[in-house]
């Protein structure tokens, strides 16, 4: 049994393929609309699962959002209008790739700005250390030399 265990694990791993959470009753009859819905669903975050798109999530809320996307597309909305409707209803957090406008601009800029600031502080510190020179290399005064000679004689 022990020698067959790795083969069994490999077989189970190969058989277990990722399943999409989209239910058959959600699929639209028009293939073009369904393709658009799938594309939009891949860009929307499941609010329950956090970093999973609604196309892959089995959560009830994800199903509701998938149905809402399909409803908006069937109603004749463009992709942008359908996304805007979802964002208006659930907030910008529903987008897997948030926009780089408004308050989000601060978040997009903060990382690179902190990196540049840290680099500037590091360069300034290194330059200051180089300019300070070696404190041990300073010469002794005559009194210090006499005192040192006395200490060495003892």
Show the helix and strand layout.
Layout (H helix, E strand, L loop, with lengths): L4 H11 L15 H12 L17 H15 L4 H12 L13 H29 L9 H12 L1
Helix pairs in contact: 2-3, 3-4
Briefly say what this structure is.
With 154 residues, the protein is an all-alpha fold. Helix content is 59%, strand content 0%.
Radius of gyration: 33 Å
Proportion of beta-strand residues: under 5%
CATH superfamily of the largest domain: Cytochrome C biogenesis protein
Average predicted local confidence, pLDDT: 83
Principal-axes shape call? elongated
Structural class, judged by helices and strands?
mainly alpha
Low-confidence stretches: none
Q: How many beta-strand elements? A: 0
Helix fraction, binned, reads: 55-70%
Number of domains: 2
CATH topology category name of the largest domain: Helicase, Ruva Protein, domain 3
- Report how far the terminal alpha carbons are from each other: 83 Å
What is the highest CATH level, the class of the largest domain?
Mainly Alpha
Sequence of secondary-structure elements: HHHHHH
Counting DSSP H or I runs of 4 or more residues, the number of helices is 6
Would you identify the CATH architecture of the largest domain?
Orthogonal Bundle
What characterizes the major β-sheet? none
Could you describe the 3D structure shown?
- With 154 residues, the protein is mostly helical.
- It folds into 2 domains: 5-94, Cytochrome C biogenesis protein (Helicase, Ruva Protein, domain 3, Orthogonal Bundle); 110-153.
- The chain is built from 6 helices and no strands.
- α3 packs antiparallel against α4 (79-90).
- It is elongated.
- It starts with a helix and ends with a helix.
- The model has no long low-confidence stretch (mean pLDDT 83).
């Amino acid at each position: 049994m022990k020698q067959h265990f790795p083969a069994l694990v490999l077989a189970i791993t190969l058989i277990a393929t990722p399943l999409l959470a989209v239910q058959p009753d959600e699929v639209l009859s028009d293939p073009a609309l369904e393709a658009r819905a799938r594309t939009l669903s891949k860009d929307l975050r499941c609010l329950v699962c956090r970093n999973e798109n609604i196309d892959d999530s089995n959560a009830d809320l994800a199903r509701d959002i998938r149905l809402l996307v399909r409803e908006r597309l069937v109603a004749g909305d463009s992709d942008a209008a359908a996304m805007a409707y979802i964002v208006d209803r659930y907030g910008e957090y529903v987008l897997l790739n948030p926009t780089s406008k408004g308050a989000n601009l601060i978040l997009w800029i903060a990382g690179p700005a902190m990196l540049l600031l840290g680099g500037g502080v590091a360069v300034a510190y290194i330059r200051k250390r180089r300019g300070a020179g070696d404190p041990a290399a300073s010469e002794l005064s005559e009194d210090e030399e006499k005192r040192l000679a006395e200490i060495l004689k003892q």
